[in-house]
Amino acid sequence: MKDEEKIPAWTNEWYGYTEAGMKWLADHGCTWEKLCAEPGDLLLWDSRTPHYNLSSETSQPRFCIYTCYMPVADASQEDLLRKKDALERWVGTTHWPNARHTGSNVAKRDGEEDPHNRFEPVNKPQWNERNYKLTGIPYINPEAGLSAVEEQAIRA
């Protein structure tokens, strides 16, 4: 696929396939499999695998959470500070847990903002030692100071 012209993207962390890229995948034995999930199902995959999703074609809203982890040893202090900032602002990151790009996607239905959009959790997380460590925040150099989120986790 080295000759394929890449679809422009806001980040180089995302790769969009053109028709030529889709043909290349098919020519190399890749087939698309539709996964039908029920509420509460957990789907695990390597996000480097070609994949996509589609909006619901019904009036039933569909929600999902993409969660991605990597060893904290592979994250720089800058990465961890970006993750901390994203958590405190309740925004998402890309497929990559080092959070090079943060922000919110505004879901749309029929060209209009989805009425189910929200920009912070209805129920804020209850921090314990394990889930707090999974944020990467405890591994930030102590000179960065403590936020309200960190103070809540310490008191928990």
Total helical elements: 4
* Fraction of residues in H or I helices: 10-25%
Structural class: mainly alpha
Strand content: 5-15%
Order of strands, main sheet, comes to 1-2
Low-confidence stretches: none
Mean pLDDT: 79
The main pleated sheet reads as: 2 strands, antiparallel
State the assembly state of the protein chains.
single chain
N-C termini distance = 50 Å
Helix/strand order: HHEEEEHH
Please, could you describe this protein's structure?
This protein is mainly α and 156 residues long. It has a domain at 69-155. 23% of the residues lie in helices and 5% in strands. It is built from 4 helices and 4 strands, in the order H-H-E-E-E-E-H-H. It has helices at 19-27, 77-89, 129-134, 148-155, and strands spanning 92-93, 102-103, 108-109, 112-113. A two-stranded antiparallel ribbon has the order 1-2. The protein has a two-stranded antiparallel ribbon with strand order 3-4. The longest helix has 13 residues, at 77-89. The chain is globular and about 50 Å long. The protein starts with 18 loop residues before the first helix and ends with a helix. The mean pLDDT is 79.
Keywords:
mainly alpha; globular; two-stranded antiparallel ribbon
Task: Spell out the blueprint of helices and strands.
Elements: H1 19-27, H2 77-89, E1 92-93, E2 102-103, E3 108-109, E4 112-113, H3 129-134, H4 148-155
Antiparallel strand pairs: 1-2, 3-4
Offer a quick outline of the entry.
With 156 residues, the protein is mainly α. The protein has four helices and four strands; from the N terminus they run H-H-E-E-E-E-H-H.
